[in-house]
Amino acid sequence: MSRYVMGNYGRFPLALTRGEGSWIWDEVGKKYLDFATGIAVCSLGHCHPAIQEALRDQSAKLIHCSNLFQIREQAELAEFIVERVVRQSGRIFFCNSGAEANDALIKLARKFGHDSAASHGSARYEMVTCTNSFHGRTLGGIAATGQDKVKKGFEPLLEGFTHVPFNDCDALRAAVGPQTAAILFEVVQGEGGIHVATPEFLQTARELRDEFGLLVMLDEVQCGFGRTGDWNAWETVLRDVDGEFSPDAVSWAKGMGGGFPIGGIWASDRLAPGADFRVCDVLGPGTHGSTFGGTPLASAVGMAVLKTIEEDGLIDNARSLGEQIRTAVSSWNHPLIAAIRGLGLLIGFVIDETALSDCVAFGESGQTPSLFVVNQLMKDADLLTVPAGANVVRWLPPLNVTEEEVEEALRRMRHTLDQLLKR
Ligand SMILES: Cc1ncc(COP(=O)(O)O)c(C=O)c1O
Q1: Is the CB–ligand 1 distance for residue 129 below 6 Å?
Q2: 78 in a domain, yes or no?
Q3: Residue range 73-100: average pLDDT?
């Protein structure tokens, strides 16, 4: 089918044509329960009426105009994100994807390092990120990403990135110095296998901010906008911890448009550490831009998505159904599941490779444990999930998934896992 499309993706042999809520149909009319949601994109499920309405209404008024003009829908979406999502003052820059959002963060870090040279003593451009991270496929994104496989063959890479093991506070302290402009990490590592940042790691980053006058930047591209059971994943991590936490900048995309491409960053309006300018003013006129970032159409859809998340109580739904899934799967004590990780509706089931190696079909498949199980769930249980690294099967149901759909997905996965033990 994809004879004329570049072969840069490993694709499942499934062509999807229609979706409704948590369900999706392929070309031959087979119906799947979709707990992959375009990898955390379709936060309201498929073809939600609020998205349809926003697309219909806005596309009849104005689809695109340049950022050379005022865009009311963009301004309103930015206000919603600042006032209701982040709830800390700052400003938003809009783009179209997660990698672009992280590129904006990298440029913000570099410009900050440059502009604060006088007060700091020298210009800085170095950033500390984490091993096993994923920050996107642009040259900036792969340089920031702490996985060799995404970098290989694209050298020379953008300079100045050091990677430290995720959640290793001592390694973070050791890597940061007067040369560091920013620390950047995912609050939940998604592609790297669903690893959740510890409160200590977030707090250590904050302490280093004050000590070295650097920026703390969070990549919430996959885990943001309600998925973890709070608007922001860092709030979920720090729920039981005293004291304020405030990043300097955050990146998003994926769930932000519910399937319509939109990404963005928030930058705080506090004074940048050790500087006499605000973080949100670092990328001033002429320093950065995007033709398509925050168009009237993208902004109207983004607003419809975020308002629906708020008005329909979907953040609470993500928290409680996430808990329901974790409790149910833990109670199975299933030999094929070595651990359950994640927050809210960003869940990783760690597959026990030793137990799986008793399954002849797995041995013959030549696949990683996660890809093998994801394939089995798709073929045997009509349940779509996503691998996260070599050993983790990831569930990313829509934030408005129902209890019954969760029960159904649990039933399907349990059945498939039981079958695998018998083969
Ligand atoms: C944490 C994180 N950052 C950045 C990206 C890149 O986003 P995009 O594919 O929209 O460029 C991803 C995509 O999976 C991601 O999970």
Answers
A1: no
A2: yes
A3: 98
Ligand 1 atom closest to Cα of 254?
10
Residue 24: phi, psi to the nearest 5? -145, 145
Element (H, E) at 141: helix 139-144
Using CA positions, which residue lies closest to atom 8 of ligand 1? 98
Model confidence pLDDT, tens digit, residues 198-227: 999 999 999 999 999 999 999 999 999 999
In this predicted structure, what is the pLDDT of residue 2? 81
What pLDDT is attached to residue 423? Answer: 78
> What is the H or E stretch that residue 397 is in?
none
- Assess contact for 136 and 265: CB atoms under 8 A: no
List, for residues 278-296, the tens digit of each pLDDT value. Answer: 999 999 999 999 999 999 9
Distance 377 CA to ligand 1 centre (A): 24
- Verify whether ligand 1 is closer than 6 Å to residue 220 (CB atom): no
Q: What is the pLDDT of residues 356-399, one digit of tens each?
A: 999 999 999 999 999 999 999 999 999 999 999 999 999 999 99
Which stretches does DSSP call E strand in 52-159?
A: 90-95, 126-130
Residue 184 lies in a domain: yes
- Ligand 1 pocket test target in 254, 265, 290, 292 with most atoms within 8 Å of CB: 254
Residue 365 placed within a domain? no
Q: Is 189 in the pocket of ligand 1 (CB under 6 A)?
A: no
* pLDDT the model gives residue 422: 86
Could you tell me the CATH number of the domain that includes residue 56? 3.40.640.10
The closest residue, in CA terms, to atom 4 on ligand 1 is: 135
Q: Is the CB of 400 under 6 A from ligand 1?
A: no
The single-letter DSSP state of residue 281 is G
Q: Is the CB of 221 under 6 A from ligand 1?
A: yes
**In this structure, which amino acid lies at residue 218?**
L
Is residue 44 in a domain?
no
Q: 65: domain range?
A: 49-311
Rounded Cα gap, residues 55 and 60, in angstroms? 8
Q: Say how many domains are in the chain.
A: 1
- Model pLDDT for residues 228-237, shown as the tens digit of each residue: 999 999 999 9
**What pLDDT, on the 0 to 100 scale, is given for residue 354?**
96
The CA angle 376-379-382, to the nearest 5 degrees, is 105
Does 106 contact ligand 1 (Cβ within 6 A)?
no
